[in-house]
Amino acid sequence: MILNTCSQVMSLANELEKKSALFYEDLAGRFPQNKELFLSLTKENDHYITQIERAYYGVITDAFEGCFAFNINSETYTLKTELAEKASYSEVLGRAIEIEEKIIKFYTEAAEQSKSLMADIPRAFRMVSKKRVNRLSVLKSLLDQGE
Amino acid sequence: MGILEEPIKEALELKNYINGEWVESKSEERWDVINPATRKVLARVPMSTKQEVLSAIEAAKEAFPEWRRTTPLARVRCLFRLRELLEKNFERLSRIQTMEHGKTIDESRGETRRGIEMVEVGAGIPSLMMGYNLEDIATAIDEYVIYQPLGVFANLAPFNFPFMVPLWYSPFAMATGNTFIVKPSPRDPISQVMLAELIEEAGFPPGVYNLVHGGAEAAQILMEHPDIKGVTFVGTTSIGREVYKKCGETCKRSIIQVSAKNFLVVMPDADIPATVAALLTSFFGNTGQRCLSGANLVIAGKDDGFYKRLLNAFVEGTSKIKVGYGLDESVQMGPMQSVDGKERALKYINIGIKEGAKSILDGRKTNISGNYPDACFVGPTIFENVTPDMTIAREEIFGPVANVIRTKDLDEAIEMANRSNYGNAAAIFTSNGKAAREFQYRVECGNIGINIGIVAPMAFFPFSGMKDSFFGVLHGQGRDAIRFFTESKVVIQRWF
Q1: What is the torsional sign of CA A26, A30, A36, A38?
Q2: Which residues from chain A sit within 8 angstroms of residue B455, using beta carbons?
Q3: What residues does B488 pair with on adjacent strands?
Q4: What CA–CA distance (Å, rounded) separates B427 from A2?
Q5: CA B274 to the chain's CA centroid
Q6: B364 and chain A: CB distance < 8 Å anywhere?
């Protein structure tokens, strides 16, 4: 589905954050040794939703191109969050990396497409994307370290 | 993603809010408030009796002396509380606007935000309302100016921005110490009812803010009554002219913001993708039902290649616009607010064809996303080969119709815009600063956009307008509003 409106893109951002938060909650239950880390990621996701929605609701006006700002294919950003019951630690980390890469790509694309809107919106997208790049490094280093 | 939940589940019986009480109207005449997309009845609105309008005036008059004596700080604390309540109810308010008006959810949220910004600016009254002074105008004599409120003000609100427009005035009026009566458009008064509920919850004293439903008769009473000190009106030029005359006859102040025919001029050096996004919003946002909408798209210059590239991109973008119910997040353009509005737009499309304009996109038959009755839907329409003398290029259509006109250069475009009776907004799209300055300098319009499709001034600037788009002296919003809602008193003092 092609997303054109701000409202749709905000809903997708919300969905991606919530879906990935549930994924990390699942990991926290499966891998108690990194429970705190995974739970902190879910908390961060809540924070990202707040930041993005605050930017959108704070600056949206009838005057800017809210209904014509985007051209994003939502199918590109479908997250695979289901895990096999006996998925290994490295498998789930691999999946987490995939998820994060997809979400980073989403925010990067959304920021690029919305750059002519009020600055707060692309800035919020870029900020979340940047923080997720840091998260990605953490996940990759965990994968490198193995168990 | 999909259709957002509707906050109104069953038809409401709307009441007046007078002197801090919700009062059922004794009138037997009631209008249905209809969701233009679904055609469901959302509410029944009374055409209030003369006595009810008079009692609102009386309540506002009674409340004035006490409210005027309330300190500006205490007055704006009510606005601060209102602002918080508006934020808390942001989404509900926005969805109600979509239901009662038809606009998309992004547009409704934009309208809610604009309304809140007015409250925020009004909350700055303790600073904004300060007078000025000069000591020693003569030896040991000082002179100063005090801004004082006048009494009761009324707003006759339009249907196209049912929530926001009354907020162009009421926060400024009340913060400066006046009392206020709003008469919402009977077509879509529900968000105003909700606003009044929040005003009540915010703790404004009884009588400071009053809401009275009705049509032309209620408006007439408000315009004629000697206890009303000023009227603000947003609507058509023909009615606005009458309101202005009536206010003059009864020595009232007035802000009359009326019709438009806005020219958007694109120069051959404009950035096409960015310009097209702005054009789509300008011509088709709010389904063309706003006084800042683009109406005539003037493509300047002899560069045929640029003309074709811009027009193709504009037509391509327009043809993809998804039309449907505004609570569907994917919808980019909602229905017209009423059957009358649709008929008016169709009438002008037919006139355009009859007068020889070339229809590139015809909105008379449109693909509606979802299973909704087509009673109010009109698709985006583009006419090419339009000449400035054609009816569609001169008269306000108030619908999603873009007329493409070609001129040889900027001079011709400016002269064309200046020949219009209207002077609400005009915009130029260019990367040339000299052309932009020339446009800004010469065009006779109150709101000028440079690479901006909808020239909507922020709450802290006046919403200007010229010629047949505005009657009055001071405009709504910003410092003009502070002056409009206050009288200046000069004091010269000497102590023996």
Answers
A1: negative
A2: 63
A3: B147
A4: 30
A5: 25
A6: no
Rounded Cα–Cα distance for residues B240 and B291 (Å):
13
Residue B172's alpha-carbon distances to B66, B153, B463, B464, B472, in angstroms, are 17, 11, 14, 16, 17
Burial of residue B182 (number of CB atoms within 10 Å: 0-12, 13-18, 19+): buried
Computed over every residue of chain B, the mean pLDDT equals: 97
- Start-to-end CA distance of chain A, whole Å, equals 39
Mapping DSSP onto H, E and C, the string for B452-476 reads CCCCCCCCCCCECCEECCEEECCCE
Instruction: Please answer yes or no on whether B107 and A69 come within 8 Å at the CB atom.
Output: no
Q: Do B281 and A67 touch (CB under 8 A)?
A: yes
SS3 B333: strand
Confirm whether B247 is a catalytic residue. no
* Cα-based distances in Å from B470 to A12, B88, B147: 42, 35, 25
Nearest Cα neighbor of A68 from B144, B333, B227 is B333
Q: How far is A30 from chain B (nearest CA, A)?
A: 30
SS3 B351: helix
Q: Write out pLDDT tens, residues A20-66.
A: 999 999 999 999 999 999 999 999 999 999 999 999 999 888 667 78
Q: How far is CA B473 from CA B248, B290, B458, in A?
A: 12, 22, 19
Minimal C-alpha gap between B260 and chain A (Å): 16
User: Is A6–B106 a contact, with Cβ atoms under 8 angstroms apart?
Assistant: yes
Joined tokens for residue B19: 């002197």
User: Which tens digits make up the pLDDT trace of B330-380?
Assistant: 999 999 999 999 999 999 999 999 999 999 999 998 999 999 999 999 999
- B332 and A12 in contact by Cβ < 8 A? no
The percentage of chain B sitting over the pLDDT mark of 90, rounded to a whole number, equals 99
Q: Which of B286, B331, B333 sits opposite A62 (nearest CB)?
A: B286
ipTM for the predicted complex:
0.88
Catalytic entry in B78, B247, B291, B445: B291
CA distance B481 to A69: 33
How far is residue B496's CA from residue B494's CA, in Å, rounded to a whole number? Answer: 7
Distance from chain centroid for Cα A74: 13
Which residues of chain B have a CB within 8 Å of the CB of A61?
A: 110, 113-114, 456
Q: Which of A71, A13, A73, A85 is nearest to A45 (CA)?
A: A13
Give the containing element (helix H, strand E) for B152. Answer: strand B152-156
Q: What is the mean predicted confidence (pLDDT) over B42-53?
A: 98
- Give the DSSP per-residue string, B6-72: PS--S-EE--EEETTEEE----S-EEEEE-TTT--EEEEEE---HHHHHHHHHHHHHHHHHHHHS-H
State in Å, rounded, how far the first CA of chain B is from the last one.
76
Interface of B with A in 239-278 (CB under 8 A): 274, 277-278
Do B456 and A63 count as a contact with CB atoms less than 8 A apart?
yes
Site of tokens 């702005």:
B278
Mean pLDDT of B475-488: 97
